[in-house]
Design a protein that fits this description.
Blueprint lengths: L8 E9 L5 E4 L6 E4 L7 H7 L7 E6 L13 E5 L14 E5 L5 E9 L3 E5 L9 E11 L28
Length: 170
């Protein structure tokens, strides 16, 4: 059986869950995730687990925070003067808001506190500091993309978009 190598496009069905069994993302009911390995589309631990697998192979594995989204960094909490926000902005605790970095990139942040004077947001990835368990099945391997716009498809709205809040995405 041929094994998966860096550079190949892999289609995989997956379910990601936390230690308490809560499912944070899944491809169930959707097309499988298709990514090109070695291009930074996946968190490193997920990609490492895919390398060497074969077509139709299934696997369950748990990634430590270091292999997934790292540990929480409390210095990534920022406070903004309420006056800095547009008048129509009405953030609520636990909302995810998009901030813009100095380079113009959208950065997701979770609202921790809102009062009359300030808004406090957390820029840590929502899954930072957590061990992640994945159940995966390889359903396709190719040297070329098979899905239109093949990029990181594993990130649902619940998990964010590639690199922001997602599960297996970086």
């Amino acid at each position: 059986m041929e094994t998966i190598k860096s550079g190949q496009f892999v289609q995989v069905h997956y379910k990601g869950s936390l230690d308490n069994g809560e499912v944070f993302d899944s491809s169930q009911g959707r097309d499988p995730l298709e990514v090109q390995l070695g291009t930074g589309q996946l968190i490193k631990g997920f990609e490492n687990e895919l390398l060497g697998m074969g077509l139709t192979e299934k696997k369950t594995f748990t990634l430590s925070p270091e292999e997934a989204y790292g540990h929480r960094d409390e210095s990534l909490q920022h406070s903004f003067d309420r006056k800095e926000l547009p008048a129509e902005a009405q953030p609520k605790v636990d909302d995810t808001v998009g901030l813009q970095s100095k380079s113009g990139q959208q950065v997701p942040a979770r609202v921790l506190l809102v009062d009359e004077e300030k808004v406090v947001v957390d820029l840590n990835h929502v899954l930072a500091g957590k061990s992640l368990t994945f159940d995966i099945e390889v359903v396709g391997v190719s040297d070329t993309a098979t899905q239109a716009g093949s990029a990181c498809g594993c990130c649902s709205e619940a998990a964010g978009s590639c690199g922001s809040q997602g599960s297996c995405c970086s």
